Hints:
This protein has 409 residues and is of the alpha+beta class. Helices cover 31% and strands 22% of the residues. It is built from ten helices and 18 strands. The chain has helices at 2-13, 30-46, 141-159, 187-190, 237-246, 287-308, 325-328, 333-344, 359-365, 389-406; strands at residues 49-53, 59-63, 74-79, 94-96, 104-107, 112-114, 130-132, 168-173, 194-198, 205-207, 212-221, 263-271, 275-284, 313-321, 350-351, 372-373, 377-378, 386-388.
Amino acid sequence: MMQKVTERFIRYTQIDTQSDPKSGTHPSTPEQLFFSKQLADELVAIGLTDVLVDERAYVTATLPSNLNKKVPVVGFIAHVDTSSDFSGKGVKTQFFSNYDGKDIVLNKSEKIVMSVKEFPELLDYIGQTLITTDGTTLLGADDKAGVAEIVTAMEYLINHPEIPHGIVKIGFTPDEEIGEGADYFDVEKFGADFAYTLDGDELGVIEYENFNAASAVITITGRIVHPGYAKNKMKNSMLVAQKFLSMLPSFEIPEHTAGFEGFFHLSSIEGNVEKTVMEFIVRDHNRELFEKKKRILQGITHQLNLEYGEGTVNLVLRDQYYNMLEKIEPVKYIVDIASNAMLECGIQPKIKAIRGGTDGARLSYMGLPCPNLFAGGQNFHGRFEFISQQSMEKAVEVVLKIIEKVKVI
């Protein structure tokens, strides 16, 4: 299976499917629809039924049951887009077989090196085969590895009809990276009792708790006059923005947080004297602390408008998704299924919280309980992204084992 899943993954990485948070379209980029149509053709070719791809780039398909009894319908979901944070165009993959635990030179001419000192997790992969890029693009393991693993597992079951299984549903979504992956997902039509996303992280990870998430756009309106005659007249929006930033909790930023600690992340700032726009993402696992963070932004906005004049600072807050823990705990047995499947595959499960979100978080609130499982990648959204061939093969094994265990519920 290693050869099959690797071949698929490499082939998928050659299609640039970055999502675009500013496009306003669904999908946000045409390349995602192109890739989804190719996936649909591939699913038909390997023998899945009810294969559908819609105009928004959602792909669904069914593996029919070969049992003579009814068992729960399980689904597997991954997303087709890659992050807009770093280029995914022209990916050049490299293989490092029997990795020796030393620094990896990704690009000699550009002097791009993935060092063990900066990325100590590399030492967990000694003796394995690592796949990287040449350091000029991201790899796309988030989440084309998940897509490749699901398709490979389905093909294996189709080619081995002697293996008993119930109905299996698969789904591939666009625009997960910009928080819109579940926007048009039809849970009722999908028809699964529960599902799992395969979306990132190292071997053995099971995640059923994630951040509560919101976006915040702060627009500051200033006033430009000749600087020589500016006293009591000029209002420099960039300096107001600077003051806004100074009023935020200084250590509640990604660089100083880990585990269950939330943060304010300034993801973009652009401005001049007359207008400055700052974009934030706001995250916290704890719902009360999440709401408190939003109130902090609202309080700063109010205070600065009192100081600089009403309308100077405008805040637009939008909730994106919530912690799936609330929806998974009542059906915790689906986490146990995944955990036991991993143990039977010789993998030690690692239960952890996602310092981010997946389609599964929103789908869980839409009525489809959906924990997240490892796909095997590391260092997502940048030039140092890599994945282990062995981890991808293990992910395929876990999918097959979950399907096996569901048939005896």
